[in-house]
Amino acid sequence: MNIEKRFGLRIRELRMMQEISQEELAWRCQLSKNYVSDVERGTRNVSLKAIEKFAKGLDVRIEDLFHFER
């Protein structure tokens, strides 16, 4: 599995743990819902700025976004 897919699955996992919609996460991160959807599906190459926005929107440390299942 590629890094984009693994990152997207981790974003989805954290979002689902908080029981929020993609729309809510997009609002919190100041990103579009389509962008969040693309990231979760692993079809986007995410920038460092977007990673920071996801961490803030999910209220987690940046490194928490990279705790993948092997």
UniProtKB/TrEMBL annotation:
It comes from the Bacteria. Coiled coil: none annotated. InterPro entries: Cro/C1-type_HTH, Lambda_DNA-bd_dom_sf, TransReg_Diox_bact_type. GO terms for molecular function: DNA binding; DNA-binding transcription factor activity. Keywords: DNA-binding, Transcription, Transcription regulation. The keyword Transcription regulation applies. Residues 11-65 form the HTH cro/C1-type domain. GO terms for cellular component: cytosol. Pfam families: HTH_3. PROSITE patterns: HTH_CROC1 (PS50943). This is HTH cro/C1-type domain-containing protein. The lineage of its organism: Bacteria, Bacillati, Bacillota, Erysipelotrichia, Erysipelotrichales.
